Structure prediction request, 284 residues.
Amino acid sequence: MTISSLKETSSNRGWEAKLQLKFIEENNKTILKHRSHQGPLQVQKVFYPETSGACHVYIIHPPGGVVGGDSFDVKIQVDSNAKVLVTTPAAGKFYRSACNEAFQHQTITVADHGVLEWFPSENIFFRGSMANLRTRVYLSSESHFIGWDILCLGRPSIDETFSQGQLIQKLEIFVNGRPVRLDRLMVRENDAILDAKWGLGGKPVVGSFFCFSSRKDIVDLLRQNIALSENGDLFSITLLDGIILCRYLGNSVEHVKRNFIKFWQILRLALRDQEAVIPRIWNT
Prediction:
């Protein structure tokens, strides 16, 4: 079912957008069983570039940017044996706000033997933006989940820093109802965390890559395949509570994405014995 209701509550509150997707496996093929949307969040088509029956889905936000007062709520459910890759065609842009926060809440549920690869494009936070982001991932002990999150504070290409505004970000992963990863980042204007060595050290790009797996041998393999740059970018790869966690802190969105894609390709072979198929939208 598709509900197409372009709803703008008021000039102060901005867009209220919702998207709900449910995927099931049917005859060895993953299908989008349920789809509903309200406001400017859409999925136009499901792609099948893989022989496994896995589907690729692009979440589209036609306005292209987020302003204060906007609210986005995304819910994705992956049933048993369904295989899904979700991405977005362009960076999320959070524009300057006079006072209102922009909210982006995402809830992901992956059932036993369900597969979700969650690869949204980076979020860029303009100077003066006010953003509150929360992602919750609910897994079972037999789920397969790989995902990343990339943030860019300010616009380094024009020497814009995040000297005004506020960002609150939470990423939470639960397995069988038990929290196994609770990440929280809060950055306010002129916050010491922006430049301190114990914080971001003046680097505007932050990346996190998560994989639900307890295989220590894969951690060593990923570490061997980090492509280091010459501009002081930092990488770390750890294993804790059944989550392989890769961290990036640096100056280049493109650099972190290249490494994260490489990690995904390695994990695809190691965990599922399948070659990674790059979404076509990444090549445009």
